[in-house]
Amino acid sequence: MNKEHYISAMNDIKPDARLIEKTKMAMAASQEKLTYGKKVVKSLMATPLRYAMVSMVLVFTLIGIYYWANRSVSMIDVDAQALNITALSQKDGTVAVDSKFKIEYSGKEKLATADLIRCIKLEPTMEFALDKQAENTFVLSPKGELASDSIVNLVLTNGDAKVQKSWAFQTQTVFKVIATTPADLSRYVDTTTGIEVTFSYPVSEEQFKSSLTISPETTGTVKTNGKTLVFVPDKELKTSTIYTVTISGSLVTTGGTTLGKDYSFSFRTADNSGKAGGYNLENYSSVTESFLAGDAPVIAVNASAVFKMNDTPLKVSVYKFRSAVDYEKELAAYAQKKNVKFGDYEMPQIDTSRLDKLSDFETKLTVSAQSFWAPSYIILPDGLLNEGWYYIEVTTTNPSDGKEIKLYKLMQISSISAYYMQADAQTLFWVHDTQSQKAIEGAQVKLNGEKFSAEGNTGADGAAILRTSVDEKSLERNGVMTITKGEKTYVDLYTAQSETTSSMQEKYVSYLYLDRPIYLSTDTIKAWGMVRPRGNAGKPEKLRLQLSSYDSELYSVPVTLSPDGTFTAELSFAKMSTALSGGWEQVRLVCGENEDIASAGISISDYVKPTYTTSTGTDRPVYRVGETVASYFKQTFLMRLLLPILMSSLILKTAAWPHPSLRS
After folding, report:
1. For 388, how many CA atoms within 13 A lie in the half-sphere containing its CB?
2. What is the pLDDT, as a whole number, of residue 12?
3. Mind spelling out the 3-state secondary structure of 504-527?
4. 368-382 burial, b if ≥16 CB within 10 A, otherwise e?
5. How far is 65 from 58, CA to CA, in rounded Å?
6. Contact in structure between 78 and 91 (CB atoms under 8 Å)
7. Are the beta carbons of 492 and 331 closer than 8 angstroms?
């Protein structure tokens, strides 16, 4: 078709009127929508405020979309079976005490560190850090070493204490010395003793002997008894000698583990002179003793049966110091002897040429009739000792071997009574005049030792507070206290305490009560009590009620104190991650880093309640000859279903006791 024919054909086409009308209507609608859109945009853009609002809506919409796309899941929704925890340092199925733990999650969800740390618990309770290594991979680091040779549990909860899954790990036993015989710093050790060392792992006799050093040098043989190595000396040890035993840190177990550092302990052998066969006579209390003026002074002693049963004669010599100053000097010299390792606790003989002799007399022991193990007494004559300071020597002969034994005593007779107690590096003194029956105001109190000194005066109430303390490791704790008021002086030994932090029991007044002492393994412990601070102590932090076994936490719940310091709490056994095996356990009220405030023992047993119980007894514990004994037999029926408790009692009247036929 040529051009002319095409144009002619197009001109011959007649347009459809209905189509044209529809087209016009569509174009008009489009124009109307466009005009409305322009008006809306123009309206929104009319002011800066509207512009800002539109921008904020767009920004928050984008943020919401981003977080929705990268959302983490709640631990309630996580697949616990897809979570796995492994120890990073372990050997032969046990975990090192300094091990960290790797946490991996193979589920599709993304775990957040904050959610995970909220839902993971380390038992026994210990703080830990949680570091994210990669997507859904974390490392848990305990803040401190795990207890050796124990079970450590990592527990996954849903955030509300409900257990979802738990992992148990057995920690390794550290190679160390468990015990020694004799124990470190033992005194009066028998010269026939052997030396025993118990380790946590087996050690060969050859390894032990090559790593063992004894000073003074001692020869002997080594024997093995399980994990205990025994050194048997070739001959008796020397008397009154300090022996030091050192085990080299190079000691190796049969499994190849090294001890790591030297271990030493010391002991002092006994002076067996006059004490053969264990028969001895010694002071029952301190070398020094104070009595009030007018009291009957006595010397309390520990005496072997051989002295009690043989009426052994005792020769007693009494000397008097010429002044309080002389007595104080003797006490200071004695305190200095105690301020060394294995210091002398028995008073040495004093040079009596500087003292005035009062009396020599002979007496016998007064033996207590109450108990064989009670102290016996050396009673001094009435009126012999007035107010002053005395030195007393007691000499006797050991009935078993005829050897001489001597006992020494320093004694003070005073009308001043003094009481003191120590706490928080302070010493409270209270001074009283027993003649006037009044507190002494203005008394001068002095404390003197090698590592401490303090001075103060008592107030109207007779009290004085002095600050005194020594380093925890210091041996120089012993000194002398002197209390003076006018012509009267009181002198005695004084031992300073090391400055230590008050325990939680000292910081708080506390009470803990449980609803009963025995529980089924499915029960709930209901507890209540009170915790109130003493002095300036604030509220206890991280207060919680804890069920413990051998000081290891089994389960705990937080405790909230009311304004008056009271509380209630419950421990449900059903919420524990591990089943209870029964036995004796402990409920502890703890705070901070597992510090005890109060505790109570309980028994857990799946017992069956009895139908009834029975008991018998008498109306009195003691009867005179000829009196009538009233005894009873009682049954208590424990009816269930909240029925009243039924009791039945039977009183039996017996004839006079003992029966005439049994009387002598």
Report:
1. 15
2. 46
3. HHHHEEEEEEECCCEECCCCEEEE
4. eeeeeeebbbbebee
5. 11
6. no
7. yes
